[in-house]
Amino acid sequence: MSPKEAFLGLLDKLESCRDQLWITDPISWHKYVTECKSAKIKVLEADRNQVRLQLSCDADTAFYDLPLTLSTQVPAPWKTCVVRQGKSERKVPVVDGAVRYAAVPGSEEVDIKS
After folding, report:
1. What is the pLDDT of residue 62?
2. pTM value?
3. Distance between alpha carbon 89 and the CA centroid of its chain, in Å?
4. Where are the alpha helices (DSSP H) in 2-103?
């Protein structure tokens, strides 16, 4: 196998796994890592019908504004839920008692409802 064939095979494999990978540029990677390292989550409310969170980070949100991937435990009976932050709203499945979603630090509260 030539180096070119091997490289094209690698690219094909990456494409087939695209939904499991984040392929990005160095600046976006730096911004994401910086936000992650200084991120803070405060639970504002948690009951059997809703979880409300506040996501913040110490990095300047004027420059560090990428959505972070969060995973939040939800009540056991939940199978799907609606995650809302500001004007963004999406229906998300619950997997193994947790919901995974993107949220922007320093923005509006994150509201998760069954």
Report:
1. 83
2. 0.78
3. 13
4. 3-16, 26-38
